[in-house]
Amino acid sequence: MNNTVWRCVAGLALAGSATLACADFPEKPVTLVVPFAAGGPSDKIARDLAEALRKPLGQTVIIENAAGAGGTIGSAKVARATPDGYTLLVHHIGMATAPALYRKLGYKVPEDFEPLGLINEAPSVLIGKPTLAANSFAELRQWIASNGGKVNLANAGLGSASHLCGLMFQSALKTNMTPVPYKGTAPAMTDLIGGQVDLMCEQATNAVPQIEGKKVKVYGITSLQRLPLPALKDTATLSESGLKDFNVQVWHGLYAPRGTPPEVLAKLNAALRTALKDAELIKREEALGLTVVADDRLDPAGHKKFLIAEKARWSKVIQDAGEYAD
Ligand code: ASP
Question: Which long-range contacts (CB under 8 A, 24 or more apart) does 284-289 make?
Fold first, then answer.
């Protein structure tokens, strides 16, 4: 048993109250591990959250990017971290998709984590390189049909949101494209803007500034609702454009490693709830199309239930698609 757990348990035995033993948490900076490259959507969300958590935790909150393998490297790192509340994971829908995609995953979902609450829901858009001739989704479909397997599709690695969305897109069009994996959509975006790759699904968080700057072309929203953002006011959903029921909606959550003392988890959840009520954070997130979670998924039990349901839903889709990695 590690020291912190021991200290809390010893506190329980000695003082009759674990709250007393863990009362000083946090006594030092808390690290949020982001399993993708800096400058991408997960990184941005984690940095905004770190800022909003600073006050309720009374401590500095640091970001550590542990990118690679579609978010599974950073997730494994947190699963193995000392469960003392000082190392947390900010991860998205990949938490629910990786178990079906990876035959050898170094952790179990949800068993190796303590879900602390959902952070937000993040819509995505399908975007293309600026030199693509297609100016509408209908034209894009034609272009894909005539270029077949030569079309490439950037993603943030197997299990990332962009990968999942790309998988769904190919299956909806009944076409195979060439996936190009990166350590996050931040480096992928650089190549998309530069024309080295053709298409990518990207969360509105990072896509909107590039659409506004006319650095990329936008072809559709990947979830079922249009987005009330000026940059996307004329953008239809992929479902409306003919890919009926196409729906890839990304969400992010906060996790501690399994075995973190309940008193520490309670403090972290309380801090998360306070952070997500922060008016500045809400304003920033909404401007990028994100919805801050304010329902029962902000509760560890509700988050866990949602995670299990998402895992079951995506496992089926992924198995049906016959996609996996060793
Ligand atoms: N969340 C990833 C990132 O921040 C993107 C993705 O999953 O597609 O780069």
Answer: 284/48, 285/45, 285/48, 285/120, 287/229, 288/204, 288/205, 288/208, 288/229, 289/122, 289/123, 289/204, 289/205, 289/208, 289/227, 289/229, 289/232
> Do 42 and 186 fall within a single domain?
no
The stretch 18-22 carries a mean pLDDT of 50
Mean pLDDT of the chain: 91
Q: Which numbered atom of ligand 1 lies nearest the CA of 94?
A: 7
The answer to the question of residue 21 being in a domain is: yes
Which mutation among 33, 34, 36, 72 tests ligand 1's pocket best, with the greatest number of atoms within 8 A of CB?
Answer: 36
Domain that holds residue 127: 123-232
CA–CA gap between residue 91 and residue 114 (Å, rounded): 13
**91 alpha carbon to ligand 1 midpoint, in Å?**
9
pLDDT of residue 14: 46
Q: How far is the CA of 188 from the centre of ligand 1 (A)?
A: 10
User: Per-residue confidence at 62, pLDDT binned at 50, 70, 90?
Assistant: very high
Helices (H), 262-299: 262-275, 279-287
The residue nearest atom 1 of ligand 1, judged by CA position, is 42
Residue 222 belongs to domain with CATH number: 3.40.190.10
| 141 shares a domain with 117 | no
In a domain, 237, yes or no: no
pTM above 0.85, yes or no: yes
| Pocket residue to mutate for ligand 1, from 44, 165, 185, most atoms within 8 A of Cβ | 185
> How far apart are the C-alpha atoms of 208 and 322, rounded to whole Å?
32
Do residues 165 and 111 both lie within one domain? Answer: no
Query: Nearest-5° angle of CA 163, CA 168, CA 134?
Result: 90
Query: Which atom of ligand 1 lies at the shortest distance from residue 34's CA?
Result: 4
